[in-house]
Amino acid sequence: MARYREHYEFYLALLWKEILGVRQVPIENDFFALGGDAAAARTMLADVEREFGVRVTADHFAAAPTVEALARHVREARQASAAPQKPFRVPGSPAGPIPLVYLYTVEGELTYSDRMLTADLGVPIVAVRSIGMDMEEEPLSTVEAMAARHVADLDELGVRPPYFVVGVCTSGNIAFEMARIWQERGDHVAFLGLFEPPLMREIQQDKAYFVQDHVRELCKVSEVDFTPDRLDQCVQALRESGEIPESFSDELFMRQAEVHALNVLAAYKYRPAGRFTGHAVFYESQAFDCGPAGLARLSDPQTATNVYESFWSQYIPAETLVRRQDCDHRSIDLTRKAREFLREDIAHALNALNSAVPTSI
Questions:
Q1: Domains contained in the chain, CATH given
Q2: Mean pLDDT across the stretch 106-113?
């Protein structure tokens, strides 16, 4: 897949693929050279205005008809308006009455889940980013606050039960808390997918450590030198490598590193107030020595001897299905096998519903 550096590039590329029927949309490619015409451009710009509240004229777009330029314009307009972000339907995902709510990875962003979000999972996908990613509002610092905000935003969007929700790594804890909120208010959660959420434990590292960790990882990806005591030099090197869009201020870049740090700290500090008793599926890598690849249940005898599975068995049902892959933790939601698992498990949960419950988005 083409790599998109930030949310607006990612969203627009998916939208262009849907409208133009093309497989790839590099950020620098011309909309009209990709097969677009004036009617397609009007359709696309109407979607942008509906989704982001940003009006772009046809003449303005025609002057720079690329994902990169349009993403920059939308981002700057959004920041100027200070409009809070909302969940969004992933362009190109199938139509249907019951959506899958898919939460961000530890970075707070969805571009890292591009393979999953562009797969046909059999249901429409509503995606959720971390609050505060665009500096339109302050980021949140606890799982409880994050989950409550996302539930409220989904209510406003019109997502209704039965709920299907997936969290990856730190957002697994947030998805779990969202499922508990829905359960406590009497709503049916038909599927809770947990992609190796972290153990909740005391940690010594602080926010500064995890900010630095985020920058370190980006430097590794971009193959530039990481200098821990000179993050300003790291940011400059990342700019020169193209990892950071030119229109990103240093302040915006560091805000997103801060969101990453807060997501990690919140996940570790989270202490659930109770169990989730509905249908869940637990996805594992080999990171926690949970046994060979294949199917299992949390009720299996080996769970009692495995610290990771034993911990989570306190909070989700013993009959929870465990899906194991021979991969590392960082790849757990990126493999073809993960997409096959999730598609299968969603289909199973849909079939298990006694009756279709109308749901609108």
A1: 7-81 (1.10.1200.10), 88-200+270-352 (3.40.50.1820), 207-268 (no CATH)
A2: 91
Could you tell me which residues are beta bridge partners of residue 281? 193, 321
Reported pTM: 0.92
Residue 324: what are its φ and ψ, rounded to 5°?
Answer: -115, 140
Report the half-sphere exposure of 153 (CA within 13 A, side-chain side): 21
Nearest CA to 196 among 345, 348, 307, 330? 330
Could you give the 3-state DSSP secondary structure of residue 121? coil
Distance, in Å, from the CA atom of 320 to the CA atom of 183, rounded to the nearest integer, reads 17
Q: Is the pLDDT of residue 263 over 70?
A: yes
Separation of CA 48 from chain center: 20
Question: Over the stretch 117-150, which tens digit does the pLDDT of each residue have?
Answer: 999 999 999 999 999 998 889 999 999 999 999 9
- Indicate whether 2 pLDDT > 60: no
Q: Per-residue pLDDT for 357 more than 80?
A: no
Q: Which residue stretches of the chain are H helix?
A: 7-20, 38-52, 58-63, 67-81, 114-117, 143-157, 170-184, 207-222, 231-241, 250-269, 307-312, 336-352
For residue 120, the tally of other CB atoms under 10 A from its CB is: 10
DSSP symbol at 245: -
Higher-pLDDT residue of 289 and 339 is 339
Helix spans in 188-335 (H): 207-222, 231-241, 250-269, 307-312
Rounded Cα gap, residues 84 and 243, in angstroms: 25
pLDDT of residue 361: 44
User: Could you tell me which residues come within 8 angstroms of residue 109 by beta carbon, excluding any fewer than 6 positions away?
Assistant: 6, 7, 129, 130, 133, 256
CA nearest neighbour of 91 among 153, 9, 16: 16
> For residues 205 and 260, is the Cβ–Cβ distance under 8 A?
no
